[in-house]
From TrEMBL:
It comes from the Bacteria. Its main location: membrane. The chain crosses the membrane at residues 35-59, 71-94, 106-126, 132-156, 168-192. It is a multi-pass membrane protein. Pfam families: Yip1. It comes from Venatoribacter cucullus. Keywords: Membrane, Transmembrane, Transmembrane helix. This is DUF1282 domain-containing protein.
Length: 200
């Protein structure tokens, strides 16, 4: 089921958003467990394997291998940050809904946020080869596609006019960028801190 949704968003996003809107009937707990917990494992496990087997490299420097004892706690923090980030974005969206004439529904916002983030979760596979010069273009491309999913999906999923959808999407992007900068700063500190724990 989830794989069908993911493939649909990658191949025919407008139709898939319509399908998700019509099928949206799960509880928050089910949505969280079925979708978010599994998707957030993709970048977490990829980075865990990449940093312990390949090594982490910044700006083409020699790769630094993390020990399993160092990488596992960092991966757990990273995983929790991903979950918190998605829930926080859904809550921001939930708080904005009434300004756009939509009956607030946190569950719907959570579903939309999770599936808008699918390209970013999939881009996490680049963590298997954690070289910054490789990871940045992959993440930028995934971010661009997530923005595309946001602008295409919002009017369909929320049943808005294209004008309302565009205004709502811009508001989400502005709020999301502020939240993303904070999350990225924390993630960078966690991973760079892990490298600082390495023996000289």
């Amino acid at each position: 089921m989830m794989l069908n949704h993911v493939l649909g968003l990658l191949t025919n996003p407008r139709h898939q958003w319509q399908t998700l809107r019509l099928q949206h009937s799960s509880s928050i707990v089910e949505v969280f467990i079925r979708y978010l917990l599994m998707l957030a494992l993709i970048p977490t496990l990829a980075l865990l394997l990449g940093t312990t087997l390949v090594g982490w490299s910044v700006a083409g420097s020699a790769p630094l291998l993390l020990s399993v004892q160092t990488a596992v706690p960092m991966a757990l923090v990273f995983y929790l940050l991903l979950l918190v980030g998605v829930v926080m974005m859904a809550y921001i969206m939930f708080g904005m809904e009434h300004y756009f004439g939509i009956e607030p529904d946190f569950e719907r916002c959570l579903v939309f946020t999770i599936f808008t983030s699918v390209p970013l979760f999939l881009a996490g596979l680049s963590g298997l080869y954690p070289m910054l010069l490789f990871n940045i273009p992959v993440v930028l491309a995934a971010s661009a596609y997530s923005l595309y999913l946001l602008f295409v999906g919002l009017p369909v999923f929320m049943d808005l006019t294209p004008q309302q959808g565009a205004k709502f999407a811009i508001a989400i992007v502005v709020a999301g960028l502020a939240a993303l900068i904070g999350c990225l700063a924390i993630i960078a500190l966690v991973w760079l801190g892990g490298m600082a724990w390495l023996p000289a």
